Amino acid sequence: MHEISLVRTIFRTLEAEFPAAGLDGLERIELKVGPLSNVETILLQNAFNAVVEEEEQRFQGVQLQVNLVPILIECPECGQRTEVENYRFVCQCGRPCANVVQGNELMIERVVFKS
Ligand SMILES: [Zn+2]
To answer: Measured in angstroms, how far is the CA atom of residue 67 from the centroid of ligand 1?
Structure first.
């Protein structure tokens, strides 16, 4: 499952960025996920729980929060940014537009440590 490897990548990224001792105080991981990233929140949560349970017990109790962001397009004709609903890629000015400026994200947005 593609979500399992995503979760493993998240843990490897955190290990590369923070000293091991610091990660013991990890409380919450917040991800920024766009609809075009092909990630299902529920599958990601399930994968996270499974990986923590089976491979990464040291992260037990850490929360995964998925922050969904909308798709935004920017029209090259009029310069306006429009939020895409129902995958309808049309600018407010009426022109079709495929210039996506937000919506592909799949990234660690924030990590929160216990105080
Ligand atoms: Zn426009």
So the answer is: 27
